[in-house]
Model the fold of this input.
Amino acid sequence: MQMLIAVVNDPDKIDEILSGFLELGITGATVLSSEGMGRVLSHDIPIFAGLQTLLTGSRPQNRTLFSVVADEKLEPAFALLQDVCGDLDDPATGIAFALPVTKVVGLAPELGEGGGPA
Done:
């Protein structure tokens, strides 16, 4: 299993991503509001105040999505993120990465796995 973490710069895309996850059989995710380093620095540290004019109003707050997914669903999930968000290598689209999960408790089975809804 893998922990998929995605920072999505356009919060309007989250519903489409979550719907796509369901179609892939990924049934659980947590979404948090988040802020990038540039935005935080522009507000809190005067030397970076010039960044505020670049970021204020032009970049909405990010959404960070966490989901534990089966290994075989990881690449389709990354493909979905790229389809919905655009090329994540482009600036201001987002970032996604995965980390191995060594133990999980309290996680419902994904769709198509034993014990879960089919």
Q: What stands out?
A: The chain has four helices and four strands.
